[in-house]
Design a protein that fits this description.
Helix content is 35%, strand content 22%. It has 287 residues and is α/β, with parallel strands linked by helices. The strands form two sheets. The chain has a six-stranded mixed beta sheet with strand order 6-7-8-3-9-10, with helices on both faces.
Length: 287
């Protein structure tokens, strides 16, 4: 039995956590307001993907995928184009519905029965490769707009920032390193600064699980180093999943790397183990 199979046998919810096997999050039958932080990670695992399959017009984008993420870890996901990385994130965030299989967020939240909005409310944030900020607004205003608050029209019109909310913005500004340009319009930021601002906008929503797609594409060397510091600093308080093609960057931040190929996990381990895996060298590293 391979190391990956042993991990699967150990962590399957229905084998290890029998006392919750019959529980189902109420989204499958009725809608409830999700309160961030309610997720059950008492066993140390925040995401359980098991026997997941997704097909598009006969093409199997995800093929019996099983993957587990520990609460607070920073995990890098690599693989060739078409390996299923984007589809996996689409399923986690509710954008794509699987043919079958399960995706549990903690012990009780079945993401396959939740809407995109409910998943975001539950504490899962996603940063796409292309930043989506408000270019004509300042850095501060972008963070304010992204804040986890009541977005209905009237409350938004009369809302004033509380001291706690201002402290939150200051905390995020410090985290993303944009304190000195807080009043600059987003349109004037460098590529790296724009990426950090979008990460900050996600942090304003208090995510527990953060999915980050190719964060250093197009960055300078200095920006790449700063991004590595930012993402490693987020781990622990957040679970961070990074999909990336830059192997030097992956090597600089990852303790565990998962390699996807043809919609399944090909290999998993530390960077040295991945680089020395003959299968990975053949299908991904081009050797």
């Amino acid at each position: 039995m391979s190391q990956l199979d042993k991990i699967r046998q150990t962590m399957r919810r229905d084998r290890v956590f029998d006392f919750v096997a019959e529980q189902r999050y109420p989204f499958s039958s009725q809608r409830h307001t999700v309160i961030p932080g309610e997720i059950d990670v008492s066993h140390g695992t925040i995401l359980y993907i098991e026997s997941l399959n997704v097909s598009f017009d006969g093409f199997k984008a995800i093929n019996d995928l099983t993957l587990y993420l520990n609460d607070g870890e920073l995990r890098c996901i690599i693989g060739p184009n078409g390996a299923g990385k984007t589809t996996m994130m689409d399923v986690i965030t509710g954008k794509t519905r699987p043919d079958n299989g399960t995706v549990y967020y903690g012990q009780t939240m079945d993401l396959t029965h939740m809407t995109e909005y409910e998943i975001a409310q539950a504490g899962i944030g996603r940063k796409f490769q292309k930043p989506t900020v408000f270019p004509n607004h300042t850095v501060f205003e972008n963070l304010e707009l992204a804040m986890h608050t009541d977005k209905r029209v009237w409350p938004s019109l009369i809302a004033q920032l509380s001291g706690e909310q201002k402290d939150k913005i200051d905390e995020v500004l410090h985290t993303i390193g944009l304190t000195d340009i807080v009043q600059s319009r987003a349109a004037l930021l460098s590529h790296g600064q724009t990426q950090w601002l979008e990460i900050g906008m996600l942090l304003m929503q208090n995510p527990r699980l953060l999915l980050v797609d190719e964060p250093v594409a197009g960055m300078t060397h200095q920006e790449t180093e700063r991004t590595a510091e930012l993402l490693t600093g987020l781990a622990g308080k957040h679970t961070v999943v990074v999909v990336e093609h830059d192997m030097d960057f992956v090597r600089s931040i990852a303790s565990t790397v998962t390699v996807l190929h043809e919609g399944s996990v090909l290999a998993e381990g530390n960077m040295n183990e991945i680089q020395n895996d003959a299968r990975v060298r053949e299908v991904y590293l081009g050797e």
